[in-house]
Amino acid sequence: MALDRWIALVILCVTLAYGYAAFFTMDQLLPPFMQRNPIWPSTFPKVLAVLAIIAALVILLGLEKPSSSEKTPDIDYRRLGEYQLIPALALLGLMVAYALLLRPAGFLLATVGFITIGASILGERKYHILLPVAMLATGIVWYLVEQVLGIFLRPWPFFLGVS
């Protein structure tokens, strides 16, 4: 079995467990007044689980590939050294660093840094365009989450004392 099908099998197992939790365990503790609502807190997880299961099954059954294509796998695990592993691992490390720095560095600084460094790892060199776009996108997302949705995100680092 090809590598993409093995990954789809793992994703299918994880999403089946996630779907079981979304369909059978999340709604048991809802108060009675919320049980009459058309949208429950588990609605999005249910939709996400169903879509992920369908996507994993499509890949696992090979329905996404045309029948006339070759049967060779797209990723050859025997030639992993020829792939761009260093940028991929650097992006994974950057995601971990972003998650760890989100609270102490603040949302604005951590997100602008993540977008800028991530784009640099991927090969973007026009910093005069990258920095304003990263700052604008971060500011818009912070405004929407903080002001429109009413979810508090610490915008600045904790040592500045500004919240």
TrEMBL record:
Q: Which domain of life is it from?
A: Bacteria
Q: Which organism is it from?
A: Meridianimarinicoccus aquatilis
What sequence ranges are listed for the domain DUF1468?
6-153
Stored Pfam families: TctB (PF07331)
Alphabetically sorted, this entry's keywords are: Membrane, Transmembrane, Transmembrane helix
- Listed transmembrane segments: 45-63, 83-101, 107-123, 130-153
This protein's name: Tripartite tricarboxylate transporter TctB family protein
Source lineage = Bacteria, Pseudomonadati, Pseudomonadota, Alphaproteobacteria, Rhodobacterales
